[in-house]
Amino acid sequence: MICVISIKPAGIKSIATGRDNNFIAVFLKLSDFGDHKNFSNLLQWVALQRDEALIKKETIDVPSLISETLHELSSVALTLNVTIEKNIAVLSYESDRNALKVIVRNLLTNAIKYSTGKKVFLEVTQQNGWVKIQVTDQGPGIPEEIRVSLFDEGDMKKVAAKGGGLGMQIVKKLVGELKGEIQAHNIAEGGARFEVQLPLN
Length: 201
Fold this sequence. Notes:
The chain is an alpha+beta fold. The protein has helices spanning 9-14, 21-33, 39-49, 62-79, 97-113, 144-147, 156-161, 167-177, and strands at residues 58-61, 83-88, 92-95, 119-127, 130-137, 181-186, 192-199. Helices cover 43% and strands 22% of the residues. It has a five-stranded mixed beta sheet, covered by helices on one side. Strands 1-3 form a two-stranded antiparallel sheet.
């Protein structure tokens, strides 16, 4: 999808109708805060809502994709003094590369955000016909009232009011497009763990 947007509010409104109104509200909110880091998430969300996220399967070099993603997040991790440890036991996987990268990137970004000065653990394994992606942080964990609705598609204006937060909605949507499952829970040692399971076939 190619999306051309005028920075002027009137210009934005002129290209959007119907359900795009939420997009306008969020874009303007993020612009007010100068929060450009969430803009790519916003565009991904719009594409998914319009069913324009076409899944194109190919053979993915998983270690290469992970290394590429970690490199892109290295400056953020360094700034927050977060160490990322990985265990990649799957060498190749047939799926949509862009979708898989967005899933991994958003999960890691979320974990890094809540693990200042600590560690984040990434594991990609294969078990019983599924590829499992686990991202574990050493943050404060997820309050139960938030965990139960973490992947719900909420009102975009409310999301914007909180300064973004589209990442988990996008992950949930993409995991569904890939016929997979996702869950999040707290761990006894402290912190949260996100688990994504994607079918091999």
